[in-house]
């Protein structure tokens, strides 16, 4: 099944209104999704060439005829367009090798910046807004993957895996940033929380692929990992946003110290209010695809408004929490057909936008901002943090989730994947300190943070992916039902847990 079949399914589902998406349809979508980290960027080579040769020139001509001089080679529009094109190609190339395509997208942006291939206006002037909207989409997809049913079924294991490894990673990152890089404590906390979250771009598709092959279904391992993933993301995003907001706050010291509790409380209260609103809106009957699309557009606009508005007010963490509450409520209060359709639309939006995000982030990195000694310290820090974090994840799985030894070893390596969250947060500190007019020393720390996050992705994303691919069949045992039942029946059993939890198999399949 290819991407065009998926689009036909989306179109059919929308026109059918309240018709439920069948199990066979959901399995077909999952089959396309679990073939790789990104169904769009891992198309055939022929289709990639066709897109580059046919679509992009036509798109550029259309943009030039519409926007005029804004798309000339010395202008911002041209820089963004070339970055998008190169990121698409870079993501496709590494996608064929089985690596998360965002690594290729970032690398393409870094090359463009450092070889001087794109003259003119730097995209850094719009990087902050692009990053803010990207984080909002990531949080929306995370929230829609958190099911109340799965939380009730395995609440101790999900909560433990959602919070303990990420908090341990944040504290370890803080410790090593303070001792190795010499960061002040608040800067070290900001640095550490950005490293805390694992990557949905790697964890989710590999977990779904694992489930398709009959691993981790009857014992609930797949459900635990997918349920913990949104909580893990929330810890990293909210923690970094709160620390960064406190770091850049000015004025009365009392207000500066009160910034973090105010941000957390306002995020929770705002999220609960949004959840109540969603509960009321979910009772509205939508009879066709147009009405569903309008409702989705309203929810998405609210999400973007919250993200941009709280960023302007200096309370980004509160916006992140509110967005998580909003989309978790959407996934659990709306009926299954609408929720699954919203997830597919959100995935389509993410696939279309991610080359722009990661190319802009890559173009924010210049090799001249750090010296070789600092890069050596950063690499040492990365391996030190992840080595210690492996034990935290292993201990959580073994002593709290009460899992078997082989499962603990497998998940410990798998949970070390870093990609999407670090890429989205990489320029957050740099944007904030520039906007606040901070001391040049703070600019240096922000640049070091940016380099660390990008190196984290380049090192850990391939290592985690390779670990999962080679260790799954050796450390895990396929379910007996999968081996003994006919193929169609075994696939039904393999995916039934995910369907019952209102979790779309397509969710989080990103570069």
Structure description:
- The protein has about 500 residues and is mainly alpha-helical.
- It is about 75% helix and about 0% strand.
- The longest helix is centred in the C-terminal third of the chain and has 36 residues, at about 440-475.
Give the uncertain stretches in residue-range form: 1-43, 480-511
Gross morphology is globular
Rounded mean pLDDT score:
81
Question: What kind of oligomer do you see?
Answer: single chain
Helix and strand sequence: HHHHHHHHHHHHHHHHHHHHHH
The first-to-last residue Cα distance is 19 Å
Helices and strands in order, then pairings?
Layout: H1 3-15, H2 23-33, H3 45-67, H4 76-96, H5 101-114, H6 124-143, H7 148-153, H8 155-179, H9 185-194, H10 200-212, H11 221-247, H12 253-281, H13 289-313, H14 316-333, H15 336-362, H16 372-400, H17 405-414, H18 420-425, H19 428-436, H20 440-475, H21 480-484, H22 487-500
Relevant terms:
mainly alpha, disordered N terminus, 22 helices, disordered C terminus, 0% strand, 77% helix, 511 residues
Short structural description:
The chain is mainly alpha-helical and 511 residues long. The chain has 22 helices and no strands.
